[in-house]
Design brief:
three-stranded antiparallel sheet; extended; single chain; alpha+beta
């Protein structure tokens, strides 16, 4: 959902004009920004908490050249969802939700992957530098799969 879709949602649920819904969304977002700037955090009960987070300076690598680069210290914002909301997100999938997802994205149960697909993307479980096949195969070094 982007900002325009959020405004449309507020407009429909509050039965107001788009201009009124846009102003409401903007006020809430501005309040969150000011709260973080002034108090370092904003907490909404049942929803979650935004916190100011600090990243120290560090050395990184340029992905194109591999050369080391210095990354400056910065301040960012993190979000932690409320416990109840997080539990809802991680709740087991019901049959109705599974059927809807299958209709939207197609079922993978009926698909029959070819041998080349299985060989090119094996299911693995990684544990610090080594991996084993998920189907009970022998332990193999991860470099054998990815070159």
């Amino acid at each position: 959902m982007n900002k325009r879709e959020l405004i449309d949602y507020v407009c429909q649920n509050l039965e107001t004009t788009k201009a009124g819904a846009e102003e409401t969304v903007n006020v809430v977002l501005r309040a969150i920004q000011e709260g973080i700037a002034n108090d370092d955090s904003v907490s909404v009960a049942g929803f979650g908490t935004w916190n100011k987070r600090f990243r120290s300076a560090r050395t990184g690598r340029n992905p194109q050249t591999g050369e080391p680069i210095q990354i400056k210290a910065s301040t960012t914002v993190g979000f932690k969802p409320a416990k109840a909301w997080k539990e809802d997100l991680n709740a087991p999938v019901t049959e109705t939700a599974t059927e809807t997802a299958t209709e939207d994205f197609g079922s993978t149960e009926d698909s029959n992957p070819t041998e080349t697909q299985e060989a090119s993307a094996p299911e693995t479980t990684t544990t610090e530098g080594s991996s084993t096949e998920a189907k009970g195969g022998e332990g193999k070094d991860s470099s054998s799969y990815w070159g």
